[in-house]
Each structure stands twice: as structure tokens, then as C-alpha cells.
Amino acid sequence: MTTPRRLAGVLFDKDGTLIDFDRTWGPAAYAVMDDLAGGDRVRLEDLMAVSHYVEEERRFLPTSPLIAGSSAAYGPIWAKVLGRPVGPDLYGEMDRLFRREGLAHLCPIGDPAATAQRLADAGYALGIATNDAEASARAQADILGLTPHLTYVAGYDSGHGSKPEPGMVSAFATHLNVAPGRIAMVGDSPYDLVAGRSAGAVTIAVLSGPLGEGAREVMAPLADHVIASIGDLATLLDRIAE
To answer: Considering only Cβ atoms within 10 Å of each terminal Cβ, which end of the chain, N or C, has fewer?
Structure first.
């Protein structure tokens, strides 16, 4: 098969798109907060409060700054609770802890490797653009069996900025030497779609994130297409290419 003329590459968000956000980051974040709190129950409760985290259910509320933001975005909030300086030392420690716990609790949505294989066989170049750290994204991609199919991985710390800025999407288009309009940005949050639209890419919303079907109202105005999950992506791209 050959690459459809309209699209050359597909750029995936990670959390809520390739992996189950609640089942992965719910327990992982609790372990990270508990570690950083150092056995101080009050400090742990304060971290959960500023993170809009429900301890009994091991999940975040939709208002949580951790759902779409990077550690650099919510790091200052945690730094204040922990009484630690804001900066790369704390952010690096947070990223290392999240990488470890994210791998320990990793839960994919469907079969990302099978979807990637099908798209790669159809001639699409594939990438990941996430507000997680690049090292964490690469480690999770390895476990999910995605690495052989990826030509590009960018995190908030890769030098292209973070979403909703368009830098990651634009850099993927540059990497492939194609116009941004030949890239599809696939994600579960407005951050993903705003980043894609700002770069001039096709935007595809998936409803597999923390808000589920409830995200449709917010996502639809920003999306060229809306699907339930990446399991429906290949069929959609076949239709677009016709």
C-alpha cells in the first residue's frame, strides 16, 4: 500500500490517547506524591488537594492541572507544598519518579501496537507528542511495542515547547519535510487539538481520555474528526484518503 495523498504522518498524544490516563496515572501519581511527601501525611494531603486528586478512587478530577500539563506547569504548585525551590532539580526528580511509576502501572487503550502496525503498513509516518517528559514517553513506547513504528518522539522537554503551543506538531512536519496540512494530530484534550490547529494540521479527537464521551462537546469544535478511540483511526484515515 502507498501513503494516501492527503496525509503523510500521524502524530499521537500519549496519555488518554495511547494509554489509559486514570488506570495508569491515577495509581502512579499517588505513588509519586507519597514518595515526595516523605511519610508526612499532611503534606501528602496537601499535594492531593492542589492536584485535585481523589485518594479513595485513585484518580484525578477533570479540573486537575496534571491531566494535560507538564511537570514544569504544575511543578511550582507542588514546590510550594513541599517547601522546595522551583526549578530543574525538582522537575527532574518528579519526571524520574513519574517515569518509574508510569511504567509500573502502564495500561494501554486497546492495542496501540496493532494500530501503529496497520498505519505504518499503509505508509504513514508515526510520532508521539506529549506533555510528559521525552524519556518517559520513549520508555512507555518501548513497553507498548510502538518504538519500531515511530520516527519522532517529543516531550515537553524536547525543545519544541509544550502543548497547546504548536511547536511539537510543526517540528514533526519539518522532520518529515511535508506541509503541516499533511499531518494529523490525534489527541484526547483541547491542548492537543489547539496545538494541531495552530500548526495547520488536521485534528482528530479521541474520546478515550478522562472525560470520555463528556469531552465531545468541548472537543468537537476544535476537531476536524471525532472518533471513540485509536481503534477507529485506521478506518477513518482510509475514508479520508478516498
So the answer is: C
Side-by-side strand order, sheet with 183-187: 150-154, 125-129, 9-12, 183-187, 202-206, 225-227
The single residue listed with the C-alpha cell 478516498 is 242
This prediction's pTM: 0.88
**In this structure, are residues 50 and 81 in contact, taking their beta carbons and an 8 Å threshold?**
yes
Q: Name 241's Cβ contacts closer than 8 Å, sequence gap at least 6.
A: 4, 5, 6, 7
Give the model's confidence band at 1: pLDDT under 50 very low, under 70 low, under 90 confident, else very high. very low
Cα of first residue to Cα of last residue in the chain, in angstroms, is 13
Q: What are phi and psi of 118, to 5 degrees?
A: -65, -45
pLDDT per position as a tens digit, 3-19: 445 899 999 999 999 99
Judge contact between 55 and 97, C-beta under 8 A.
no
| 170 contacts 199 by C-beta, under 8 angstroms | yes
